[in-house]
Write a structure and sequence with these properties.
Elements lengths: L1 H37 L8 H10 L9 H4 L6 H35 L4 H28 L7 H57 L29 E6 L17 E6 L1
Antiparallel strand pairs: 1-2
Protein name: Translocation protein sec66
Pfam families: Sec66
GO cellular component, one term: Sec62/Sec63 complex
Length: 265
């Protein structure tokens, strides 16, 4: 009797401890489940899935119009198209999840984002796994063997759509580039013509009071080649050829065809 009375207190203590731990674990799990249910979904509502389920469970007895009541069953071709559209949306979401996972893991490890965002991402992955299994089962029920290749077909459609969007973007960019280059070309032409007009005007103004025979030999328009800084010191030799008539009556003092040497500093 004394032995059992001595064991009563430890047994009672263990019972209370185990019961408290079980209660705490149950409450903690319920809170985590409720918190996960309140988390915002990673993706927007799945319209393609809702459309397929609506077509699959349509009931002609609940139709409002007479034309809808005549429909006894949705055609299989329409169900297949809706299911393929659903698989295409799943492919897009899977690609987005795979592309964001590594970057999100790095942000979580650095502490840049909270655990709530990572929980939302993990929940989205679990939902996509269940969605893929559901789509494969639905495809297998419609056409035997289709469940193994439906996502391959959806991936091909997705690649085709991405390529088409890229082509449209390049076409829009091409039109914008053509318009920009046309404007740029017109601006370059106007600047070039303006520079030509300014050069012609400068030549006309600079050649009014200058004798043609006094131009430096071998360089038209009185142009003399510039000297380097080391050559700017000392004298400069300019050879001109007289083109006027001989004698002192003309503007040119040098005889016709005789070189005239001019030394300038």
């Amino acid at each position: 009797m004394v032995f059992w009375s001595g064991l009563l207190l430890p047994v009672l203590y263990l019972t209370i401890l185990i019961g408290s731990l079980a209660t705490f674990s149950s409450l903690y799990r319920r809170r985590q489940i409720a918190k996960a249910a309140q988390l915002e979904s990673w993706f927007p509502p799945h319209r393609a899935r809702d459309l397929y389920l609506s077509l699959l469970h349509i009931d002609p007895a609940e139709a409002s119009s007479e034309s809808e009541q005549k429909i006894t069953q949705v055609p299989d071709s329409l169900l297949k198209a809706a299911l393929l559209r659903r698989a295409l949306e799943d492919i897009r979401r899977i690609v987005q999840l795979r592309g964001s996972k590594q970057a999100l893991q790095n942000l979580v490890q650095r502490g840049s984002v909270g655990d709530e965002l990572w929980q939302r991402f993990q929940r989205a992955e679990q939902e996509m796994e269940a969605e893929v299994k559901d789509v494969a089962q639905e495809a297998e029920a419609l056409v035997p063997g289709w469940g193994q290749v439906i996502f391959q077909s959806a991936n091909e459609f997705n690649q085709h759509n991405l390529l088409r969007e890229r082509i449209f973007e390049l076409k829009d960019k091409k039109e914008a580039d053509i318009a920009w280059w046309a404007a740029r070309k017109a601006g370059i032409q106007s600047e070039f013509m303006k520079e030509l007009e300014e050069e012609e005007l400068k030549k006309a103004q600079g050649g009014e009071g200058e004798c043609a025979c006094h131009r430096p030999f071998g360089f038209p328009g009185g142009f003399a080649p510039p000297l380097r800084p080391s050559e700017n010191r000392g004298f400069r030799l300019i050879i001109t050829v007289s083109t006027g008539s001989g004698g002192g009556g003309g503007k040119c003092p040098a005889p016709r065809g005789q070189p005239r040497v001019v030394v300038s500093q």
